[in-house]
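This section describes the prediction task in plain terms. A model, or a person checking by hand, is given the sequence of a single protein chain and must write out its three-dimensional structure as a string of tokens. No templates, partner chains or ligands are provided. The sample shown here is typical of the held-out split.
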Amino acid sequence: MRSPHPLRDQTGRSRPARCYRDRVTQKGHIFRWDLDKTYLKTEFDSVRDLVRTARLSAEDRENIPGSAALLRAIRDCAPEGAAHRIYFISGSPEQMRGVIEKKFALDGFSPDGFVLKPTFSNLLRGRFRAVRSQVDYKLNELITMRAEAPVGTPETLFGDDAESDAFIYALYADVLAGRVGWNTLRKILKKVGAYADQVDAIQEGLESIIHEDPVRRIIIHLDRRTPPVEFQAFFPLVVPIYSHLQTAVVLCLDDTLSATAIRDVAYELLTRYGTDEEEVLKLGEDILRRRRWNYPTERIEELAEGLRETTRATWPESNAPDEQARTTTARIIERIGDLALHLKDRPAPPDFVSVTSERDYLDIWASELKRREAIKAQLRLEAKEREIKERQAKEAKASVKRSERALSAGRSANKVRAQTQTQTDGDSDV
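The expected answer:
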């Protein structure tokens, strides 16, 4: 087996090792995150959105609610003698590195690896497909970073529905496990528009790793509110979520995190984002209803017990909430535990499928393109509606100004007439 190749960018050229802080030598769990719409609220649906996003300072960048608390909980929940490693792979340009690293610091953590896309380099070389495409870029980066991980290290991946993260991550998992062979993968890469040197880089990367089945879970944040059923081809590995509270619940059921992660995310939703208590409960109930059949009854009971223990546990001094917030969070956590116990024995629907058969990624890609086109059409419609509303608001504002000018002119005319009348009356008296 060939030794791991140097870190490379998507053009195949060596990239600076500063993308990674150090080599992973300690076993534990690896968490690989997308950045935009998974960790940070980012708008890039129009040129105006892109320009506005590029100009935002670190202080002005907003988190997806609960993401910062979840990342801190991932660090805190690492078992003794192991390490939880956090890596980011983003399609944002390399020029954003300084701002995003500052944002990480503001959120109280630092990732173990952070890769941004060489967009400017691709533009200069006329590689316009590479600017738009995410499949070949992210797949290459995932494989490259896997070569840096100890054999047997499990992974959890985080993405969103704005791009093709579910497709990319599931393909990555099946390639690593040997469920998708090289000949099939080469056809897929050709279908998605990969350049020849990108295909070569991916092939070289695959020769540098041990083939195993390390991907335990794929979390997809439904930023576009895509119906979860549209990801059925990737079930049960892929779990669509509306909130990172649901992420915390899933990872606790997976026995990847402890119940304190649910507590910490719930607390952040309540105090930092003003989420209503009942809304937090609805999020918990939704994910339990969708996921409970994928776990043995004993695991659901363990989750409920862990949540009860969390309500009695002492909060860390660095994260100690006020008494009211602590009480509200404890009440929510206890009710989520009660919901878990209530739902654990409910029958599964007749169409429930616990394991997806072998995936045909060429067919899935065709469906993925249709899904993305539907999203683009919806975004165009929303943009047109916003444009109409903005135009109407401008017209209304202009109408108000015209009315104010007319009223002001009328007052001035009345004042002049009054002054003239006064002068005329004075002359008459004389």
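For orientation: Confidence is low (pLDDT under 50) at residues 1-25.
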